[in-house]
């Protein structure tokens, strides 16, 4: 618990010089007896203390003593006398003529005591009640610090301070001065008013929030008040027209000080309206319930209050096991603002829990995710950037909690499925969560690894993560082959882009012509060597050679160790695949040999029987081939059509020659 601030300590005791009131009162009583010659015949009892006083000063200014002293000279004040023994001594001293004891630290108690004793204008002009009201209105309520002191002193004067409207006047005055502080008509501020925009860019941290609040002392003063007073100040600020972006930060800072920072014991000591017999959990529950009513909910708070604040409050409610309706309200609010959260805001399971799978923190986070998904489905949203952000946050969160060896594959798959796969535009964080899970479960079988990794789509992995997946020995072979295939496609695409850019960058004017654009891969152009090298097709070259070429092109982009490990891993997998291919080829060859030997045994000598069989298969007038069969009838039909075409061509040619010969002379005859 942090030490009390200087202002908090000043409230407990007045900084003004406080003389010995008891000694001054004795002097005043003696001087009055000497001046009037009357003895102190009235005995007033308050607790264990007895005061010997004069009847005339008391009955002339107090209606209470005027009634009590008509029948007796002894008066016993109640134990709950406003302000207690010290306040009564000051009132008595003022009755005897002293006028230098009023200050912001005692004026509230003196006003309540004067009201109890009925020191009004009815009994004396310029009586104590009027004097205290003038001091409150003209001195205290015109100053921020004095008003704050009086309001804090009113905690022990309930219900007298409420009935006399001292609390209400102080609250309205503080709210008005706070509005003037924000408006700043006299331009006295050097820096802007505190808002929560600076805190939204990072995760919630109680200590950083404390340092942030210390920039504005008036905000720090307001959050030191009890919750009952603070709630009424917030209502007054809103009634007087303060904008919500200035009101909500005060609520957030108040919650951070008294609830999130675990200061409930100090709060219980300073607060006068909370029953001290109730437990700390009930007190926090009451405060949180009131705070949730003060805070704006839904979309109104999306640009005002960081979602990390709601996570911090929810974590505190789980720690104190508060009522389920409070947690449910917080979860719904977090779900509506989840795309704006940071992964550090998420609630991690406590280290003391036996297993992460059954922790209440993980169940709460899973409930928040399901609520967000249900909200999204109800609104019929298509996959958006917000959904992608939520999926990435959830995958990073899973990577932080799957280190528990007691978290089984089935439970882990349920957590992955909490966010639909369609939300994940990138699978990098999902791969890291899967890799962390496999590291925490080294004894997992190949079948379990394959089942868990079925959610991973290698096409949605980045280049660096895809290379990392190829190098990861914990990943199942099927996933590694998929990653290799995607890597090979990406490499081919990169080679093609490099080749195209090389051509466009180094070709001459002739190479920019239309013919070169139509034949970009023509060897007749002077474009240098092919990027694949050695006239080999890119699809037939091994992936290790392609990566070597890629490494030569990229230069120092890929570290040497990563390149060597990746190349070694790829070569090993290629050897395994080649050996598997050879074994399959050997099996096919052996099967073909068996089929051939069976056919040879079934073949008979060439003779009439074979000829008859061939005739049965191929009837007369039919020829067979590898593509199809053609009959003599169709050949005859095609031949007749061709002859007709040739005859027409011949007739057309003869007609032309006749016309030409007729034009040359009458004696020529056609052929």
Automatic annotation (TrEMBL):
PROSITE patterns: BTB, NPH3. Pathway: Protein modification; protein ubiquitination. Residues 514-538 are annotated as: Disordered. GO terms for biological process: protein ubiquitination. Residues 40-104 form the BTB domain. The keyword Lipid metabolism does not apply. PANTHER family: OS12G0117600 PROTEIN (PTHR32370). This is BTB/POZ domain-containing protein At5g48130.
